[in-house]
Amino acid sequence: MGRSKIYALLLGASAIVPAANAFAADIPEVPPPVQFHGGWYLRGDIGFSNQHVGSLFNILYDDVDSVTNVSKDFSAAPFFGLGIGFQHSDHLRFDLTGEYRGGSTFHGLDIYTDPDPATDEYTAIKSEWTFLANGYWDIGTWKGFTPFVGAGLGVSYNTISGFTDVNTPLLGVAYGATASEWNFAWALHAGLSYKVNDRLTIEAAYRYLDLGNAHTGDLVTFEGDNDVPNNPMEFHHLYSHDIKVGFRWAFDAPQQSYYPPVVKY
């Protein structure tokens, strides 16, 4: 091979190297994969309720001059529940939950005039089975912690048992049989979750829960007499401020998603 041909090959190679470098600069850069933990999960919750009732009513209220409700208090009570859900995206998830809300003791006091003042003191136990369809917005994650808000709609099966009415001035006692009813229920959620690992997430949350209404059976005297048919004690607008802790266990392995390639020109 002559010197002129060798020289021509060297010139060609020197031209190819810059062109290859320029082509390499145009290759899209793919960012590292972004972890997205989607899919189905199982959840469990346990907590305590702080329950309230808007008002009480009995048909006998209409037969007296006036009624003043002095107190209508519930004790705190435990609840526990299970559910299944789906993580739709980094921010959006849904679940179906069912829970048993343990017996909360009720203490109430009415003062009425007829025409002289008298009192009725009430005691009872309230419990519920509550079922909700919930949606949550996970606001963002910082060092494994994720604040969230949510809302739920469903039904609640409210039960009043052991109702007793003691009228001290008149030495009267009345009882209401156990009764239950279904009601529309709704909830608002706010809380903070922490991802322990790829499968397990724990959370602490506050929930406002509206349970609807409840009632007893007809009130009868201790001798079993009932001069007024259809006279249950009615509990209107039951609601609760709940504090709870829970866990979520993901069934599916973490999925990986990528941002679209970024091309440098």
Mind sketching the topology for me?
Blueprint: H1 3-25, E1 34-36, E2 39-57, E3 66-74, E4 77-87, E5 92-113, E6 117-138, E7 145-167, E8 172-176, E9 179-195, E10 200-221, E11 232-250, E12 255-257
Antiparallel strand pairs: 1-12, 2-4, 2-11, 3-5, 4-5, 5-6, 6-7, 7-8, 7-9, 8-10, 9-10, 10-11
Measured on Cα atoms, how large is the radius of gyration?
33 Å
Q: Which structural class do you get from the secondary structure elements?
A: mainly beta
- The total count of strands amounts to 12
Strand content: over 45%
Polypeptide structure, described:
- Strands 2, 3, 4, 5, 6, 7, 8, 9, 10 and 11 form a ten-stranded antiparallel beta sheet that branches. Strands 1-12 form a two-stranded antiparallel sheet.
- It has one helix spanning 3-25; strands at 34-36, 39-57, 66-74, 77-87, 92-113, 117-138, 145-167, 172-176, 179-195, 200-221, 232-250, 255-257.
- The longest helix is centred in the first third of the chain and has 23 residues, at 3-25.
- With 265 residues, the protein is mainly beta.
- It starts with a helix and ends in an 8-residue tail after the last strand.
- Strand 5 and strand 6 (117-138) form a beta hairpin.
- The mean pLDDT is 85.
